[in-house]
Fold each of these.
Amino acid sequence: MRVIETGVYRGPHFYSHTPMVRIRLDLGALEAWPSDRLLGFNDALLAMLPGLGQHGCSFNEPGGLVRRLRDGTWLGHVAEHVAIELQCLAGSPVTRGKTRSVKGHEGVYDILYAYREEAVGLLAGRLALELVDSLLPLDMRGVQGLDRIAEDEQADLTEADSPFDMPAALDRLARLVRSTALGPTTRSLVEEAERRGIPVMRLDEHSLVQLGWGKHQQRLRASITGRTSHIAVENASDKDLTRALLTQAGVPVPKGSVVRDAEAAVREAERLGFPVVTKPLDGNHGRGVSTGLTTADEIRRGFAEAARHGRRVVVEQHVRGRDHRILVVGGEVVAVAERVPAHVVGDGRRSVAELIEEANRDPRRGEGHEKVMTRIVVDEQVLGLLARTGFSLDAVPHAGRVVQLRETANLSTGGTAIDRTDEIHPENAAIARRAALAVGLDVAGIDFLAPDIGQPVRETGGGIVEVNAAPGFRMHLEPSEGRPRDVARPVLDILFPRGETGRIPVLAVTGTNGKSTTVRMVAHILRRSGLRVGYTTTSGIYVDDALVSGGDASGPKSARTVLRDPTVEAAVLETARGGMLREGLGFNRCDVGTVLNVAADHLGLKGVDTLEDLARVKSIVAEAVHRDGHSVLNADDPLVAEMERHAGGRTVYFSLRGGADMPDFLRRHVGGGLLAVVRETNPHGGEIVVHDDRRRLPLMGAAEIPATLGGMAEFNVQNALAAVAMTYAQGVPLPVIRGALVGFTNSFEQNPGRLNVFDGHGFRVIVDYAHNPAGLSALCDLAWKLRSGYRRSIGMVSIPGDRREKDIREMGRIAAAGVFDELVFRERPDGRGRADGEVMRLLSEGAQEAGFPPERIHCIHDEAEAAIACLRMARPGDLVVLTPSSVEEIWQQVVGFDPTASPPVAEVAATAWG
């Protein structure tokens, strides 16, 4: 077997809306060996992973995968299920997966499966292939390219014929889960957000998470929210200040003070009266806390322990009672748990060490915060407490004897939790609420000691010993005993009240040509409607028309940059095929998804070989539209119009064929009261008309939009139709749309590299990023319409080298189709796999095949030199059309060109193709 490539989809993608890992696997000779032909394979596999017996596979019922194995299935499909099962066993449960053969490549499969943590998913894929390989006959073993999936520090130490070490593999995965997965508190908040349809974006490798998008986002780290006051957190971290604030608020707290040395601690204890507690001033998780101290020596030891965790130490009265954690959210008590310190109960037979080992076998216990409870770790504090209570690890306690292992009841040190939410007395709840408000925390964990939480603490004795910022939710979500509490819900109620989802309008645009112009038109309209707009194009990321980051920004990473911006009120995202194929969309759903057109470009790359394949990729955007949104589709492109069958939301068509020319399906659409935007032809370039709810709403003449060059640039008329449909569907009033489009021009500042016109040298220059046959054809159509007004025309043309040879030659033929008198072909800055000069050669061959005179073909490698050559050839009354890669650089050349310094035409002609 050989791994060809690996991909990670982080958003909706070609295969699913679920984030997935993709492994492209070449089975090679193993294509002839499905699972039923491999003697003993199925039984060995199920023995190693008995959980596979519950996988439903295509039968959607337990045992479905076993049936497939017995009947015979390919090893790629087996690896998919193994990767899923390994993740589940490691504590990262997932269910979805699929394996598909790769068209045109026999024995090659795309293995796809879901993941929760990206690194865990990748390692699971590698281990799955290693496991499957280990079950094959020796002469069939050996997987190549595993490093394409995940690095393995043990790879060089593993023999090809060694058995698969399942415990070690699961241990590696589990450790990776612990280091990368969200903790229980953050995870509960994320899952609650997802249930509400609130977008979630993880911002770092730890627990910093963004809920919502743009202006409406909220950020949190565990239970610290974006609304948590920094002052309140500082208050809570200073235990002495907390006690003072609570005392001023009339809340019962133990008396105490801060000391700086052990002897001062002894003196303070004598003043307060024994027993006392010592703890670090700014500690947490019970670290360095010693309770029930009754002698000077114990206090000195307690001071030393606390001083290990903080420079200053608190000595305070010991409050007797059971340890409770009261969770207060938004000034309301939402959960109460009684915390029981780590302990074991004797049985008269086993030692303390054996009892601890037995307690740690409880499947609910894990490392750190990964499970309901934490394993009990024997350390100096445990040994010290055992010694003080007359025990050791070897001691065998009597049956029923409780052996205390920790003084504090923190879950992180092995404690357990019992839900007491329904038992708290209203007066105690009121005290807890008052404490949270006094400190200023929106989410607070109140450590409340009371003999009986169901009785008023002012009568029974007790009080608050700490107020904690960033309280953990684990004890409430999954108590050791009692009813679990949904404590994430009230936090989300604070952050997103009244059913808010934290979303901003997201409008996504895809298609072969016209994406950038349409995005800019839509952004322009939305700004005129009063919104702060973030948008992405192939020329950069913009927020409120200010460039945030230059370069091609049409992928998912750039989309996420816009959605993370806290000032953005609407996002308009150019969504190119490359990013969708590489990692899916940068958002999970959109309000408007627009597909402009599907034309031959990038075919033969990444498994996209036909126009139908390309249409399937583009349709991802329309399928990501949510049920209340709008899919805006080009009715004039059959491949796009057909996407209506799978598109999300309500379909909106746009078309250049309005009025009497309207196709039947579009006429039925409009007749049914559905939304469409069309151009109705007239002698003045046509009129843009909106059809909505059986109403005909004239908007404006196409020629009124400067970007259409008086209606002659039909591709920009089409882009304007799409922009009108998108913004009208979003509720922008027609007068606002019209006013915005009247102000949308072809200037470089407003729409760089898209039909930019410069008339400053006595001849006209058009700069346009036409980089494929369809784009160049549209540009040449416009040049032909303009041709009669100019003496002659000169064109600079190129195409990326990773396009098919026939596409490159087609570019040459289109350029030679009677529009230009002189042609300059150039290379792209990046040959993209082709030999130097090969693109120019193929373009020239295509042009000559179309009958273009070879003496008027000029091949100049460098783009800047090619552009200058075109400008030098031009004379007053000429038209120069430049199609650059480096748009800004070439535009600056055009603007700064000095026609008086132009050399004779003969010098340029000398560069003609040999």
Amino acid sequence: MRVHTILASAFLLLASWPSSTHSASGRRRNTLWRGDSIAVEDASGDVLVSPGGNFSCGFYKVATNAYTFAIWFARSADATVAWTANRDAPVNGHGSRAGFRKDASLVLQDLDGRVVWSTNTSGTQADRAQLLDTGNLVVADAAGRVLWQSFDWPTDTLLPEQPITRYKRLVSASARGLLYSGYYNLYFDSNNILNLMYDGPEISSNYWPDPFKQWWENDRTAYNNSRYGSLDRHGAFSASDQTQFNSSDMGEGVTRRLTLDYDGNLRLYSLDGGDGRWLVTWAALPRACDVHGVCGRYGVCAYLPALACSCPEGFVASDAGDWSKGCRREFDLRCGEPVYFAEMPSVDYWGFDFNYTRRLTMETCRQICLDDCNCEAFGYKMGTGECYPKISLWNGGAPNINQNIFLKVPTRVKNLSPAVLDFHGHACTVHEQNASVVSASSYFHVRGNKINFVYFYSFLAVAFVVEAIFIVVGYLFVFRADPAAGRVGDEEGYALLFSQFRRFAYDELSDATGKFADKVGWGASGTVYKGVLDDGRSIAVKRLDDLTQADEVFRSEMSMIGRINHMNLVRVWGYCSEHSHRILVSEFVEKGSLDKALFGGDGALLGWHSRYRIAVGVAKGLAYLHHECLEWIVHCDVKPENILLDAELEPKITDFGLVKLLSRDACGRLVLSRAQGTRGYIAPEWATSLPITGKADVYSFGIVLLELIRGQRVCDWVVDGRGGDDDVVVWLRENKRMMNLDLDDESSSWMEDKFVDPRLRSDFSHLQAAAMLELAVSCVDDDPNRRPSMNVVLEKLLSLEDDTPARYA
């Protein structure tokens, strides 16, 4: 256990204890009326208390001089927090105040009077804020109608009868005893499935339910889009996707909570009324190593029998007190230099595979990794010849039967010190060009301690036997009972299982589309038809018509599909490859493409708030492609036609037919073989010998930003006598300095007259429009190096996302 975490937990327990044991002289009430308030100086006594006395609400101490406005379990020994208004923005321990204003809003003010948090009830008939026996803090009117409730804004905990819905999620705490937001989420994904996800600073990945299984194999359903789940008073949880589990102490009269803990596990707790301790009565993951991100990048998780993280040879912990930060290399890895591969027996790293292939020799698999500068290691399964080249190493686990990882290491770093040569106590067999090196060590590094590797070998042996029994039993009772299942597994392989694809027959897609009768779109790479599957799902079927080009596009998209999953990217359900037919099957997005909504007759219906949300969503999708997908995925054809809008006007980027898994030159830059894209959105470097990188997408996104502001294609603009996309862009660059001066003046009508869509009738946020215009100008710079990255663009847009006044929505 981390030392700082223990200290923080102990300090928090001592600091918050007075909040749950109020003096007799303290004000104990369950309602705030208009004009009432609670001062932080009275945190130990002035609180709201539910009628039954189970919950308290008020200021909760989280540090020496820092408080949150929270609801906690009054009868628990450690005053466990159930909800927090300002978990990531504590207020000062002097002068802060929570009050129910006369304008009917409940607000939290810091020492300087700044409003840190508030409800959205100002101007309503609300006359009270009340803490109920359910633990729900509500703002209601005189008739009892609830106008706002804390149940709609969960943090890391669900109480009985509190729902989790399509738009709400649980977010874990950052560490034991700390209330700040962490990296783990419980949410409904776009497939209507309730998921646990690690959403870290570098990667995002789902880990519950089992990501290697289809949703029906996990006993879930994807057909119910109500996306609703809740825990009842008997201790039973049920959700719209058929997620179901029960507390081990089922029955009424028990205080319970469902919490996404700081360690990424979802647990159901029951309160022991005798001593106020919490007892775990259900957990989503019995094996802690199944939680993603637990040991960080390069780290490997194992059971000895408790969870232990370690680093492979040549790596050290980035932060010995926080294993979620993973490991870092003690050497750099340069493209083109001589390397060898150090074997890590019985280890696997989850995901991030490319060019997955079956029935290869180890030498061929090794060569695939050797030929790609982005490959950090490869996994290989003896017997089946399964090859998994890895472009990143995350979520390492051991033991793994018949699976070995071969880590790429420069030849110049052969002579590592014994203290870092060992991994899990294994001898380290090295495979190298023109050499064979064998290294060994008797140390096993687990959180800074040395242990005898003999015990670890014994543990591995027992684990191997147990897992072998499961595999044999599974084969006998599953695959032999259903020969078709075995054939599908052989045919689709690991890649399709990982990405949840399925292979469609051509006749099935022909029937689903009425023999390809309902055409909804077309482009350079093929024609799109609408269809309906037998299970009722609406689909978009993209038929790649040109055999030569289509085959190339198809292979490109197929190699990408297993690693793409983001709410702002169209989800691809599967494919068809029969004879000359090359077809992609995707989700059908209801509202069609952005160009129709923005440039068509209904453009006026696309209000400012929707336009800004679309800009943010497209930026999120591109940032995911450029950065979370390991900075090598370039769309190459970003334009309104390739941005679809769902029923809530949430954008989804489509048409990955032009995406390439690009090779890199010696400088790590992306190189394309030929120009692609659409005139008006193509970056200048397409016409030069400059390499094409993600900055080409940034340029295209800048054009889309301009069109979202103006509601008109840039090629149709006329600015100071200049018209056409090239002239307008040049004018913007030339006048960038002058524009920046005017953008600072919110009273200036210059921007509105020249750039803002007149159909908005002045209903727009000047601050957001100015930021979008400034961003767009920087994105369309003719020098790719001066353009911002998509991460920078996204951060800027997100910083102003909440600035939209209600009337602009």
Amino acid sequence: MYYAWLENPRNVHKSWDIFFRNTNAGAPPGVAYQSPPPLGRTLQGLTGVQGLIQAQPNVEKLVEDHLAVQSLIRAYQVRGHHIAKLDPLDISCVDFDDAPCTIGFQNVGFYGLTESDLDKVFRLPTTTFIGGNESALPLREIIHRLETAYCQHIGVEFMFINDVEQCQWIRQKFETPGIVQFSLEEKRTLLARMIRSTRFEEFLQRKWSSEKRFGLEGCESLVPALKTIIDKSSQSGVESVIMGMPHRGRLNVLANVIRKELDQIFYTRNTDFITLFVFWSQGSGDVKYHLGMYHKRMNRVSDKYVTLSLMANPSHLEAVDPVVQGKTKAEQFYCGDTEGKKVMSILLHGDAAFAGQGIVYETFHLSDLPSYTTHGTIHVVVNNQIGFTTDPRMARSSPYPTDVARVVNAPIFHVNADNPEAVMYVCNVAAEWRNTFHKDVVVDLVCYRRNGHNEMDEPMFTQPLMYKQIKKQKGVLQKLSEKLIAEGIVTTQEFEVKRPALQSLNHQGPAALTLPVDRHQRRRAGPHWKHRCVRPRERFHHPRRFGPNSSCSHEYSPRVLKNVCCLSRAAGLSRILKGRANMVGQRVCDWALGEYMAFGSLLKDGIHVRLSGQDVERGTFSHRHHVLHDQNVDKRICIPMNYVSPDQAPYTVCNSSLSEFGVLGFELGFAMASPDALVLWEAQFGDFHNTAQCIIDQFISSGQAKWVRQNGIVLLLPHGMEGMGPEHSSARPERFLQMCNDDPDLYDTNWIVVNCSTPANYFHVLRRQILQPFRKPLIVFTPKSLLRHPEAKSSFDDMLPGTHFRRIIPDDGPAAASPEKVKRVIFCTGKIYYELIRERKNRGMDDDVAVVRIEQLSPFPFDLVKLETDRYLNADLVWCQEEHKNQGYYDYVNERVLAHLCLCVCRYAGRDPAAAPATGNKQTHLTELQRLLDTAFDLEAFYGKV
């Protein structure tokens, strides 16, 4: 710049010209700079170095004052929300650690300014838009405009965002003078929506005053808030909105946002009773404030159709968050929406749950991961300023419940929910933010809860001062109507006419709410499930009852195998891939190759396969290697399975974050979107599902019974006692079996539980999961040591046409040839089989003992077990497991053998009861193993004889 100035002083700004002239004249450091004179003022009479030296005190004061004003502006941008009027009750418990307030007219002295400076004119920095078209303003006006922008009914947190463009975008939306304005039509629409929201709650309170419904009273502006977000998003091209929310306000949202028919919300037997609509008489159903809905309707603002989906969820509050994200990701994937412009998600939260539930944090951390991002979610917090009976100061350690959102640089817009116009504006901005930057954003509706936790709760017991204040509060509809009448937007007569016009649901009464037929089930499931909506008691003829032919045809299996072999020279993996090529040559497969063939054959058939979990690309046990990494070029990878066939379906394999709760919920949501995809979640070790138990209990196990929603998600849970200690041994099969509503008919179980012992059976069960005419969750206890066990291999012949999944694998040794001579039949499942046959061989008991593998635990194979027991009429029955007696499968199996097959009790051979899943001592493990094998084969020990 200096050389440019030497060439021609006009090449640089005037300030630089003065600086270089003064420097060349010998001005000392700090004096050469001369601040631009405000409003045309010049330092007349002061020229050269001597003049600058004489003017130095004035220049420094001028510079300091301008810097002080810039600091003041920044302080409003950072901390303006501290003094914003956000709480409609004016008793906010937000705690900023008693930090002194540094903004406001009375605090200008903190910046070195005085009251006399309020009328001085200061040049505005480029990091603010409060000037509009003006570049300088008096300090008094600057403060006034800053307080208008940041300290009224809207508080904005955004200065922690490390992107200048995004910060400037937000400043422009809130600082530009007069930007918060609405047309006459928009105000009338807002009033109409407020009327519908308020009248709906009044209707429920009048008709069912003693019924739990978790009403929206105190935050009725939520309904126009959501509709504003949907309107704006639809105008931006969004075609589908997927929502998740807790129970508070759900009925109102269903009725006035999703526009679910009232006869689907209410089913009445008399005027004092309300319940949910029972879709199937066999289903358990759920309470009315847990139900969801799928609905496609015309948006009157954008004149475009938009699909609205509200996910069903239990009272576990935030558990639905990752499920919504997974379903959103799937919808984006299937419609080719790679930027989130067509499909988006909205998540509603309670303030206490948003701060207290760890799943919120897990979900936020999925927001920017390549295989999990939904390109921005709008989070709406219904901030009641209280939990059940817990004050905020007892419920969180952060000032706001929304502070968790700061970890992903999501802007947070706090707004007083008693100002519907401010709510409407903030929601418009939030929708624009999401559709501009495709990143998360939070809208914090600061409101109150007019009733207790539910309508039967008495809040005065624990929050007397708050509820005394609430009783004095005017309703938000009353406040809005009075304001609009005062502004001349509507007249009192018009308002009175509007109320009954939008209150017509009151006249229907309970008598008009009749029980619909189950055609509505399809509307709840979504468009991709139309051909899958069959009744649970719709039986299938016997050949299909236990699963279709799941074999692999000749015409495309060689293509899959060639895909495996052609990459055998990949650097760093040549030994592993060469081993696979050798197995192909020998026409045998291990566990990894069997899985590869199952996935590849499904992909060739056009079935999308998605495998997710911690380290699944390589596999926890270094057995899978579905993603190959260039050893010399960073980030250069190859996924061979995406090159099986030119017209194949895509294969998605993705390492997840170190999360189980969030990621399993996400994959469950992904599987909900379409029945024609194989979606698998693999735990790093089987017991890692412990931290995802809420998703398993509340969504996977009972989802169809409660919400009439089928789901075909597959859980792969590595399981086996191998001396690794208590933490990486057991996938807790007893938990899954305890939750089975077992039935001989495969369709009537809530899920399928298998423990495969051969790669071929694993191959078949994965293919059967897609080929069967219905969808059930599949729980697979996968092996660890069997991944490379020399005996745990299958021939290709076991996967060719005519083969299928084997629910039971009978003994095929000498004992099976002479069943009348067999003294004992040992039933088992999983890895223990290989230890049993090794022990049987060592003891020379191949003729005396038959070992039968039960591969499918649920639905229990009653018919096949009966065939085996009838075959060995002279034999004792033993159930052998490597798990402890109070764990594993024994109680489940023994009950079914005794009660349903009318057989004697199975003798038990296994570990003694224990509190921990496994010992942490290798020698103790081996001792326990040998003891259970002795019990299984030693007749004397078996009968307790000497």
